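Most newcomers find our protein records easier to grasp once they have seen one. Sequence and backbone structure share a record, each on its own labelled line. To make this concrete, we reproduce a full record directly below:
***
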Amino acid sequence: MRRIYFLAPNIETTHKIVDELRAEGIEDRHMHILAKRDTPLEDMPEASVFEKTDFIPALERGAALGATTGLLAGLVGLRFAGFAIAGGPILGILFFGATIGTMMSGLAGLQVGNSRVKEYADAIERGELLVMVDIPKERIDAMSQLIIKHHPSAQFEGIEPLLPPSYFK
């Protein structure tokens, strides 16, 4: 799955885009609309906290950093212990480090806006709406051309390289 981005100038155009995507078989869980605060989206799928913040990337970074720190702490502990310890405690420390790193980074990530969405902050404040659609890479060209053809006022803003698996459905 890849995420494509469109900027729509107003709520009416966004509503038409969402209806067209639904007609093409795109489920609501794969569409995310980000608008200025207090903009009524009616029945359109609003972007969740996972699209608005850097929560998921922060979790991934925290797990990697925590696991690395845990492994290093375990190896240093082995060095100073003066005796051989089986691999179980090292794996336990690695897991503990990854868990703590994930929790701490996840909490920090909730406070940080999504770095990809920050590019569109000015446009959103002007009243435009950001439409994010998760689609299979084979359909990217067809869907983006379809939207631009039927809604010339919508601007195609690009493709996010890769999406992680959808853990939160």
